[in-house]
Write a structure and sequence with these properties.
alpha/beta, FAD/NAD(P)-binding domain, five-stranded parallel β-sheet, 21 strands, 30% strand
Length: 313
């Protein structure tokens, strides 16, 4: 039997933004409901060492998110293991429907659905996804012990993935279409000093190569972006690390977006183009994309919800 739940504040998403919004929403006596989504804890659950969370020199990503969930619950947030499949923002109360069949109605909504890995969109990439092609080194790196692997990209994500893979792989080739990285300087320094990592500059992936039976990766074909010369690199794993795209499926047709799908918020605010709907974290942040800034926006969103509902009352 389907169930309908009403709340003053519905939080959709369970990364640093969502859980922080839960803490502050609870402290405002809003008795929020937080729906976790298909990846409880968000991107930090597929991260290993987190070294830039204030007050903790180093913590494992999954452990940090377990603590944040426990904090939100202790503060009074009702955390529900469900995934919102549809969201109606055309009238209030807003209505969301979960995969469990539960309907949630809410006087206000905080969107904290985060972001997901980007793909290159190549046919061979799609063919070998899960069979040698991955977007998550911390998820799949263990399977490539003693093997050669390649990483595609040049930002923080790519460098972090490459460094992590050196724990298992024999050799990591970092393929980048330029001759300089966009990653933080400290990460670049670590990469350049790691004897297991070999950067391949001015190249891009042309095709993932592999066997049919069983389906498995045997190498990649890459192209020199200056000369168009092709070369093949033997490897067992291909890690695509070209960044993330906002998880905006619920609102891309109803809220104003920009910069490739990030939800637009008012200046110095988390308010979206629909009154009563707020956005926090990577779904709106195309600049910083850090756990600590996401948490800060979760705080802002909850405080703005409290003000919005108080003024309405």
């Amino acid at each position: 039997m389907t169930e309908t739940r009403h709340t003053r504040l519905l939080i959709i998403g369970s990364g640093p933004a969502g859980y922080t919004a839960g803490v502050y929403g609870s402290r405002a006596m809003l008795e929020p409901i937080l729906v976790q989504g298909i990846q409880p804890g968000g991107q930090l659950t597929i991260t290993t060492e987190v070294e830039n969370w204030p007050g903790i020199a180093e913590v494992q990503g999954p452990d940090l998110m377990i603590d944040m969930e426990a904090h939100a619950k202790a503060a009074g947030t009702e955390v529900i293991a469900d995934h919102i499949s549809s969201l109606d923002l055309s009238k209030r109360p807003f209505t969301a429907v979960g995969d469990t069949g539960t309907t949630y109605t809410a006087d206000s909504v905080i969107l904290a659905t985060g972001a997901q890995a980007k793909w290159l969109g190549m046919e061979s990439e799609e063919k070998f996804k899960g069979f040698g092609v991955s977007a998550c080194a911390t998820c799949d790196g263990f399977f490539y012990r003693g093997d050669d692997v390649v990483v595609i990209g040049g930002g923080n994500t790519a460098v972090e993935e490459a460094l992590f893979l050196t724990k298992f792989a024999n050799k990591v080739t970092l393929i980048h279409r330029r001759d300089e990285l966009r990653a933080e300087k400290i990460l670049q320094d670590r990469l350049m000093k790691n004897p297991k990592i070999e950067p391949l500059w001015f190249h891009q992936l042309d095709e993932v190569l592999g066997d049919e039976d069983p389906l498995s990766v045997t190498g990649v074909r890459v192209k020199n972006v200056k000369t168009d010369e092709m070369q093949e690199i033997p490897c067992k794993g291909v890690f695509v690390a070209i960044g993330h795209a906002p998880s905006n499926e619920l609102v891309k047709d109803t809220l104003e977006t920009h910069m490739g799908g990030y939800v637009v918020t008012a200046p110095d605010s988390t308010a979206t183009s629909i009154p009563g709907v707020f956005a926090a974290g990577d779904i709106t942040d195309h600049i910083y994309r850090q756990a600590v800034t996401s948490a800060g926006m979760g705080c802002m969103a909850a405080l703005e919800v409290e003000r919005f509902l108080s003024e309405e009352d």
